[in-house]
Amino acid sequence: MENGARKLSDEYEVTTILGRGGFSIVRKGIKKSKSDIEDGEKEVAIKTLKRVSGGGGGGALGMARFPNRNHGMITDALLANEIMVMKRVVEEVSPHCNVIQLHDVCEDATGVHLVLELCSGGELFDRIVSQERYSEAEAAKVVQQIASGLAALHRANVIHRDLKPENCLFLSKSKDSPLKIMDFGLSSVEEFTDPVVGLFGSIDYVSPEALSQQKITSKSDMWALGVILYILLSGYPPFSAQSHLQKQQMIMNGNFSFYDKTWKKISSSAKDLISSLLNVDPQKRPTADEILKHPWVIGDSATERQIDPEIVTRLQSFNARRKFRAAAIASMYTCTVFLRTKKLKNLVGSYDLNQDELQNLRNHFKTL
Ligand code: ATP
Known about the structure:
Elements: H1 8-11, E1 12-21, E2 24-31, E3 43-52, E4 74-75, H2 76-93, E5 102-108, E6 111-117, H3 124-130, H4 136-155, E7 168-170, E8 179-181, H5 208-211, H6 218-234, H7 244-253, H8 268-277, H9 288-291, H10 309-334, H11 336-341, H12 344-351, H13 355-366
Parallel strand pairs: 3-4
Antiparallel strand pairs: 1-2, 2-3, 3-6, 5-6, 7-8
Helix pairs in contact: 3-10, 4-6, 6-8, 6-10, 12-13
Adenosine-5'-triphosphate binds at residues 18-24, 26, 45, 47, 100, 116-119, 166-167, 169, 182-183, 185.
């Protein structure tokens, strides 16, 4: 991997858009020369982070979750953080089959381009809901892969801090494709005390210690893994409430249950694992290495019996709703004219926004 002021277009043919993040655009690229990328890896993903010089956010968008991010652009400090973390990953972790690889970094006037391994297998939940068969054993394989990636990151003292299903992509469409952990935009190399509180993004995966602004450690990633596992086996999140505030309280109290009839059919070993990961006390949560030895994860107690199709249907609608809301919110920020002509309160119904999200949008428009 090299650094420096090189022109992206000299080295890569940039093609289709693969996706957009709050502060980035990700496009497919083809390496023009084969020199430093292995055969078969000519196709890459190029994540471009638009820079705003001078630091200091302050717009409503940057308010809570990204204190220095502002109106779809990223400050030098956050940019430097993402690159620093990715370099650490390259030096200490890569290549690891469950962690995205960074091939290159290019910088120009538009921003910084991270040249990443291309993941063409889709997001975690998209694949689960499209599978014909889905069993606890399949869910255990997912947990094993995420835990394996996390174990490598944690050994290198990297805390992901934003682990969620959208940040887990399959490398290819093949059935045995590895699952890759990605998006290190909020990760840290040292232990952090900054809160990572979702403003528009969901707080579904945020740990109690992050919400109460206590020290964030590798155990915060283990909490997020517990939430992912709960959703994988039930089709709904462990903490759900009408407002962010209520949800925050439920998370901070570790107030979840296995009461629903769904859980009667799930093995007690899986439920024990979830309970240990969703322990409010981070010290009592298992480490990623411990998870890799858990009987359910290694396949001793995870059953091959098909999971109730009702759960898959629920997971499908949870996934679709999440995608719709994410796309709606992203487009609203870039679609000021539309919003100025449409009453904000109508958006509650049309986009299924909650009151907190609506208020944040109002604040955003006051700053424009
Ligand atoms: P944010 O950075 O605001 O948290 P995000 O995590 O959604 O948002 P990105 O990491 O920039 O943003 O990714 C945006 C989208 O681009 C993803 O949802 C994914 O679909 C796609 N994407 C990102 N990285 C890759 C990759 N290496 N291969 C294929 N697609 C990718």
